[in-house]
Amino acid sequence: MPSALATLRAATADVHDRLEATLAIARPDADASVYVEYLCNMLGWLDMFENSLWASEWPADMTPELRDGKCGWIRNDLRHFGMSDAAINTLPHSAFHPDLTSCEARLGLAYVVEGAQLGGQVLAKRFVDKLPPERMRWLQGYGSETSKRWKAFVEYAEEALPTDRQRESAADAARLAFLSLADFFEQRQNPRHQPHAPEPATTFQE
After folding, report:
1. Any idea where the domains of the chain sit in the sequence?
2. How many CB atoms lie within 10 A of CB 178?
3. Is 67 helix (H, G, I), strand (E, B) or coil?
4. N or C, which end of the chain is more exposed by having fewer CB within 10 Å?
C-alpha cells in the first residue's frame, strides 16, 4: 500500500502543476510588484480558514500553535511594502470554505499549506538579492525549523491515515484546496503577469 505522502502527491500532481503554471511568482523574472500581488492573493485565500484549521484537533507534537499565524507573516510583509492595515483588510477574499470536520479533510488542506513552506524556501533564495529580509517574512516561513515541521507533518499523516480510504479522502481534500487556490489566483492575478513556461516546482513542494 502506498504511503500517505505518496498518495497525496500522486492524487494532486496535476492540480499542483496547474497551480505552478498559474503563478507569476514562479517566473525567474518575477520582481517586487509580482511578489506583492502574490502576497495579496495568498492572504485572500489563506485568511478564510487558517485559524479554524489549526484550532481543530491536532496532536501536541504537531505544534499547531506554531503553524498558525501565517496570515500575520503576510500582513507584516505587506506593511513593509507600505500597505496600510485598512487596505490590507479590504483585500478580496476567496469563497473557499473547506470542510474541517474530519481528520482526513484537515490533513489534506494542511498538506497544501505546509507544502507551501518548503516552496517558500526556494523562492526566498531567488529573492534574496531583490528584497530585504523584513519584506520576506512569508517566504522565510519556519526558517531552520521548516524541514523538522514538515517531517512531523508527514509522520502524523502516516499515523492518522492508515487505510486507503482515509488516504484517498485526504487526497480529495488536498485536490480541492489546490483547485481553489489556482482558481483564485487565475481570477485575481494581473493579466500582464500571466506566466509562460514557468520553472517547475518552485512555490509548492513536498
Report:
1. 4-189
2. 24
3. helix
4. N
How many residues in the chain?
A: 206
One-letter amino acid for residue 116 of the chain: A
Q: Which amino acid is at 24?
A: A
Q: Is 63 exposed, middle or buried (0-12, 13-18, 19+ CB in 10 A)?
A: middle
Question: Which CATH number is correct for 4-189, 1.20.910.10, 2.20.140.10, 1.10.357.140, 3.30.420.40?
Answer: 1.20.910.10
Model-level pTM? Answer: 0.90
Using CA atoms, how far residue 62 sits from 16, 40, 67, in Å, is 24, 28, 8
- How far apart, in whole angstroms, are the C-alpha atoms of residue 34 and residue 201? 18
Cα 66 from chain centroid?
15
